[in-house]
Amino acid sequence: MQLALNEDERAIQDMARQFAREQIAPFAAEWAAAGGFPRTLLTQMAESELLGVPFPEAFGGAGLSFLAYILVLEAISTGDAGVGVTLAVHSSAATYPIQRYGTDEQKQRYLTLLASGKGIGAFALTEPNSGSDAAALQLSAKRDGDVWVLNGTKQWITNGEFASLFIVFARTTQGSTGAKGVSCFLVERDTAGLSVMPGAKKMGLHSSCTNDIVFEHVRVPHANLLGTQDAGFPIAMDTLDGGRIGIAAQACGIAQAALDASVRYVKERSAFGKPISDFQAIQWKLADMATQLDAARLLTHKAAWLKDQGQPHTQAGAMAKLFASRVAREVTNEAVQIHGGYGYMSEFPVERYYRDAKVTEIYEGTSEIQRIVIARNLLQTP
Ligand code: CAA
């Protein structure tokens, strides 16, 4: 594995860090309080080519590596994890499957739309009765000539409010159960019968939008079937293999922000007549936080590197997400502890980081699901 970044990766990382420092971090508390960031931020990100980092230039992307995208995602998440998840779902969950499985026509129309950032994408897999057991999904798609008619509800869909295109998984073989009989569709937002419900109330990530999407007789052209009929579930799993590396990067970004805030605070805050940075109890915490974060980042970069090499990365991505999300929770917890009473108050950012970190252990597969994926891969190896 190559540890050094190439020139392009270094350049886009620097640019994303500067963007996060100047255009995101100063406003993150305000956006969280308001329950969202302005749509214009995504336009700015698109103009800086941050919304299509790993996708071909011919389709409006930046034409860089998946690792470059991971570097950008960590930098943006350091500024605000809500913007981070917006970018993560748009890129690795919504744009990637079109690049990987789309026909030429689908790529021309939809990959260009998303990779250029002119439109935002969302990934609609979860339903009220199917979360970890994704193959239990019930949203139905019935064929009527050249169209499919979709009925049902998708739950907690990140980017619901912003999305112009939804990647929707639906059951095309009625009466089937489990992974068989599921297909994937590209559904435009303004299709009649598709309703985006009001934003869900969450513990954290208040700046990102999360909506239920209701489908009532939504007619989708057969041309918008992604991949082949009844073979949609493996598309979801393959997409999540990369998506999980993205969430690991988001977790690293949150942990980095908490560590940076802690290092700043311990030099400013005095107790017992000296800066608290002089106390070994604080120094040990910082040392552990930094070491854990570095280990999480290395696992994340390794998984991204494997994906760039076209090598299997299911297990590496699950390991990166499992480890980095735990590190994000633990590092943000220590950051609150280091800040003492101030850490519990919203005038300091660490209580927000703590709340934002928790969901990285839940979405794109809980930590328990990551362990299942890792164990299955171990047991399958001859
Ligand atoms: N790549 C390609 N195909 C895969 C695959 C992979 N990594 N993993 C499994 N498959 C294929 C299998 O080969 C199998 O195909 P065949 O039937 O053709 O052989 C099919 O998929 C079914 O596989 P399994 O039998 O392993 O399926 P399962 O029902 O046991 O489920 C699971 C496996 C890992 C538990 C899966 O349900 C899962 O990942 N659950 C978690 C769901 C999840 O992560 N949801 C995230 C929602 S999106 C989100 O959170 C976005 C956000 O807002 C941030």
How would you write the strand order of the largest sheet?
1-4-5-8
The ligands bound in this entry are: acetoacetyl-coenzyme A
**Unreliable stretches covering 5 or more consecutive residues:** none
What's the number of extended β-strand segments? 10
* Mean pLDDT rating: 97
Total domains: 3
Give the percentage of residues in beta strands.
5-15%
Quick summary:
The protein has 382 residues and is an alpha+beta fold. Helices cover 51% and strands 15% of the residues. A hairpin with a 2-residue loop joins strand 2 (140-144) and strand 3.
What does this protein look like?
With 382 residues, the protein is an alpha+beta fold. The model has no long low-confidence stretch (mean pLDDT 97). Strands 1-4-5-8 form a four-stranded mixed β-sheet, with helices on one face. The chain has helices at residues 7-24, 28-34, 40-47, 66-79, 81-101, 104-115, 233-268, 280-308, 314-339, 350-358, 367-380, and strands at residues 121-124, 140-144, 147-158, 165-171, 182-188, 194-196, 210-221, 225-226, 270-271, 274-275. It has three domains: 7-116, Butyryl-Coa Dehydrogenase, subunit A, domain 1 (Orthogonal Bundle); 121-232, Butyryl-CoA Dehydrogenase, subunit A, domain 2 (Beta Barrel), CATH 2.40.110; 234-379, Butyryl-CoA Dehydrogenase, subunit A, domain 3, CATH 1.20.140.10. Helix 5 (81-101) packs antiparallel against helix 6. It has eleven helices and ten strands. A hairpin with a 2-residue loop joins strand 9 (270-271) and strand 10. It is 51% helix and 15% strand. Acetoacetyl-coenzyme A binds at residues 85, 89, 93, 123, 125-126, 132-135, 158, 179, 233-234, 237-238, 240-241, 314, 363-365, 369, 372-373.
